Amino acid sequence: MKSRRSSVERAERQATSEKSTARASIDSTDLSRLSRGKQPKWYRASATNTPGPWAHKNGSITVKRICLGAVAGVVALIALLAASGVVYTKYFGPARWDSEGWYPSPKGGTVKNWEESYKKAAKLVGEMSLVEKVNITTGIGWAQGFCVGNTGSVPGKFPSLCLQDGPLGLRFADHATAWPAGLTAGATWNKELMEKRGELHGLEARLKGIHVILGPAMGPLGRMPAGGRNWEGFGSDPYLQGAAAAATIKGIQGQGVIATAKHYIANEQEHFRQAREWGLNHAISSNIDDRTMHEMYLWPFADSVRAGVGSIMCSYQMTNNTYSCGNSKVLNSLLKDELGFQGFVQSDWLAQRSGVDSILAGLDMTMPGDGMVWADGDSLMGPILTRAVLNSSIPIERLNDMATRIVATWYQMGQDDETKFSSDGPNFSSWTNDKEGLIYFGAGEGETGIVNKFIDVSGDHFKIARKIAAEATVLVKNDDGVLPFKRGAWGGKKIGVYGEDAGPGRGANYCKDRGCNQGTLASGWGSGAVEFTYLIDPLGALLTAFNTSKHDVPDITSILDNYSLKKIRKSAIDQDLCLVFANADAGEGYISHDGVSGDRNDLYAQKGGDALIKAVAESCSGPVVVVIHSVGPVLVENWVDAPAVKAVIMAQLPGQESGNALVDVLFGDENPSGKLPYTIGKRMHDYGPTAGVQYIPNGVRPQQNFSEGLLIDYRYFDKKNITPRYEFGFGLSYTSFEFSDIKLTGKAPKTALPAPRTDGVAPPRYDTTLPSISEALWPKDLKRIKKHIYPYLESADDVRHDNDYPYPSDYHTRREPSQAGGGEGGNPSLWDVIVEVEFTLKNTGKVAGKEVTQLYVSLPKSVEGAPVKVLRGFEKVALEAGESKKVTFRVTRKELSWWDTERQNWVLPIEGKIGIAVGRSSRDLPLEAKF
């Protein structure tokens, strides 16, 4: 086999061709390190940022490939863009940030909850050969198995693991539920429903033979309201994201399926997220200071680890100028040491950008196995990992830990139970809808057989899907009590339904990976989307709901076209009631539609939505009800104050039961109880100067400083005293609620620091003697499959003992364990209850309903840089008309603390008073107290 040394060496140099780019490691951990002085921060900003020429592209056309006969105007335009990029970088570009190294990678098996699983794993891994260990850490290649990701197996000992998208359902699978999106689940603010959604999602996965679900997503956090994949997460607050993620993980893993917390970490926009995806050889660098990392972006991952998540997926982009899947600080230090993560770290698909360096940095599994080019069969693990262990570039202890983490997670979920996980593997194919087909689809040849068994795993899960979508529906305006509608009261009336979003369009699955905005919007696009078995559109559900009586049938007119405004105006004049639908779509960056390349271009309704709503509002003879389906906040200033617009509903991305769930709310079968999981401002500028997507690269290595720190979404609005249109946590009901009688009870002393870190369980130990090279050579009788990735070496000559391997400059600097660690999610004492908050909630209206009670904490002014308030608790409470209940929040040490970069620990303020506020939204908090 041809030597791949270049793929495992550190390479800060830029590749000069596609081939060298694919083979060169572009991990940049060996950039200038932070010298450790009085303040042991792991970030710094230097004074310079080297500019360089760049070529912006869509697809694979770069400046170098433009032929000499290209149109002069195109050449001039590209030259202008390139020049402007250089100028921007030189004079306005952000400073450069570097990430220090942290070695060695901590071993798994150090917490009591995983002890038995690690004992079993140690026994099994101890029986494996070197190539068998390598095989279970390496994907077998794109489309080489039935799932989007498939590991190698150890016949008779350990199966090929099936990894499948995604957070919204089972991508590429048949007869499964298309769930409401993560953002929709977040809008319910209902932890029971979040866990139930995860439970049924996990059940469907298990019944399909899936071992690992690639979700939930809690990154992006929502720093940018126009971010393309915000809808896969749960909302623009770390506490909300963490609580929702933890509940989802408990549900999924309660079914024995491994959940994956993703995308780790700070993958906040789609533009430039991946090397070469946007015409640049480098991905964007998310530059984050230590405190912001801990209090914002790491927070939901800490909650996920505390919930016992089995897998973490590292993201495409760089974090402080080191690729996230090769960043030893974020993988080894923050995740495996400080958070005590016991599962395995897998790469996003082709997110591994180096060989040895990524493995030393803490990467445990590469997906889908191919190196830096799709389906090339040329892995950065596989035989590279085998050789690196044999030549001692990678310590065998690191490989043992990689394999043990994977096997221990398999045991931890009970996947060795063949009554739940059949040894036959997945019963569906991601690559064809035919019953029979190629077993190794990616090879394009070879063995065939039954690849789809068409097993229906959806059961009656539509009931919960409908319930989630209904509870996530946020009523933000309801003037004159126009809602709810009364059944049977519309006989002889005229009702107009307008907008493409109300109808079925060309079908829910018209575009691959839902990569277009047509018909009603029930999902964003990309790998987080799923195939719809069916989709109930709003118009169909409305026709059924209004036609409940043979004698009281209204006359319903529909125009499912956003642009026939003259026709719509003429129609609306005659209507007693108008319902108008608009939407805003986005998704993963490999898809572009209607000028939207992953991230949204702005925060307005798309496809002429504002003009459509205004046309109806200016013409309708009766009240107008506006329904918005969206991937995030949508600005409503162009029409929300129109006198005819009486009601506005934010319906998020409701999944397959879209129309039914909406009707449940419109007709009062479900009293609206959804709350906004984000802020709706009055203009984009309201979100702050750094909240906009970076659409134009500011260098050959785009830089993005998270200089706003802790101030995103409602935190920024609060700090700058900006009045939003609808605040974070806001949502109306058909009834009313009263908060009263707040009472605080101290449960533990206010000490500044958590308890000292204690030693956990000892991790497994193995014989570290290297095996004979002959054990790693190709078996003579093995029939090779085209593009399939194997762990074997062609020749003993491939193993060269190089004593000058260019390890990271601080590789031999051993780090002290973090005092913030010591357990899953962090130091166990961080979850000690410090104060108990009790209050009374009463339903003062005439109908039953649910209220989301929200608790916010304000740290003393002595804590420099603290937001005005931060969400630190929520509970959804159901009450009958006139009923009262006592509600209790148990607030923990971590929820009252801030991250001190000098002490490198969570610090609870002991001087000054901590404020506690309780209410119905971030701007409506009637109860306040201090302690």
Automatic annotation (TrEMBL):
It is a single-pass type II membrane protein. The chain crosses the membrane at residues 66-88. Residues 1-49, 801-827 are annotated as: Disordered. InterPro entries: Cellulose_deg_GH3, Fn3-like, GH, Glyco_hydro_3_C, Glyco_hydro_3_C_sf, Glyco_hydro_3_N, Glyco_hydro_3_N_sf, Ig-like_fold. It is an enzyme of class 3 (hydrolase). SUPFAM superfamilies: (Trans)glycosidases, Beta-D-glucan exohydrolase, C-terminal domain. Residues 1-16 have a biased composition (Basic and acidic residues). The keyword Membrane applies. Belongs to the glycosyl hydrolase 3 family. This is Probable beta-glucosidase E. It comes from Discina gigas.
